[in-house]
Predict the 3D structure of the following.
Amino acid sequence: MIDSVRKKKLISVVVIMLCMILLCACEHRGKEIEMASGDKGNAESTESAEGEPNAEKQEEKGYDLPVGPQERKEAEENCKKMMNLVREIYEQADKGSSLNAVLSDKALSAMRDKLKESGVPVTAPGLYANMENFESVDNFLQECVEGRSGSAVVYEIRTDGGIGRKKFLFDGTGLFVLNASAAWNDKNEPETAYVSHMRVEEWDYTEKGFLCYRLCVPGPPEVTEIVDGSCLLRVKPITAEKLREYAVFDEENDTYAWEGLIYSGHIRTYSFTVFGSVFRVTFDSHSS
């Protein structure tokens, strides 16, 4: 009888000890999971803080601005649509033997005319190349000058047969540019090279039809070389005869006729080539 009682007590002690061991083990394991979860959460929080740029700071800088999914999709699809319109011309054009193909002026003009038929504003390389279907862009910029919001899209045919797309957006106070670029791959299929969104730091649309603007670009110490964000877009057409008229030198005033062509009373500092090989223009800070 006594032995039976002792056995029962011994069994009870063993069971209690096993329960305590299991309880301690579970508690220890729970703490490990909790610590692991906490470390993972901290890691994810740190990664999010380091990986995602500060939106307000990026907005202040004005470059590498976020591109909405719909805007990106629209830009990519429109670029490919324009590329497909000129596919046949590109495939038949002589591209030479170099890796960086340069199409002839004839091929580039044919591509421009093809896009012109679709009704979109389009430009192409060339000494006297005008922007086709420029009216909508001119109207948009006139409204921007008056402070009215809106948008306009311009397509640019490049010498390699690729197509760029610039969407100008004005919100009533600031001008922004959504740039997209498409190129041909080795299989002659259009591919989107990039889509970017930038704010325009300053801009002017002249009576003669020039859009002069400076994009917000990174500077030191973010980059080691100076990035020039100055751009010039001729919207209103100009003839070769008018071009020669502008190139006449006025000996009495020691100026060329084109010196008042682009700017009209605003202070700017830009450097760019205008009208191909006719003349090179460097603007320093001045007021006309």
Observations:
- The first strand starts at residue 122 and ends at 123.
- DSSP finds seven helices and eleven strands in the chain.
